Amino acid sequence: GGGCYHVSREERLTWQDARAHCHSLQGDLAAPLHYSQFKHFILKLRLSRTYTYWIGASTAGKDEEWKWLDGRPVRWEVWGSSQPQPLYSQCLALKPAYKFVVSAEGCGESRFYICQQERLL
């Protein structure tokens, strides 16, 4: 689909540290253009439903809009029924245990993560 994903299941990092690690791989946290296709791909990996994975979207404050790292708004269909929660939950995480919807999490929490590297032409 135009790029590669790296799913880290070896170490848990904060959102910022996970993003820095993705940068060291010449990528960034995953910010898929088509979330339904991304979700289908991730389902095929059979990730453990026990863990939560950082992906590339956040908000800078409780009144700001959720955006992917490239500036696109996070569309409502990616959220779980009670998300997003306000205040200290400012980074986006993928939750396999909840049918691969995303949730707002505290950026300082340690999670596994998914990096994305765009294909260079």
UniProtKB/TrEMBL annotation:
Gene3D superfamilies: Mannose-Binding Protein A, subunit A. Residues 1-116 form the C-type lectin domain. Transmembrane segments: none annotated. It comes from the Eukaryota. It holds the Pfam family Lectin_C. SUPFAM superfamilies: C-type lectin-like. SMART domains: CLECT. This is C-type lectin domain-containing protein.
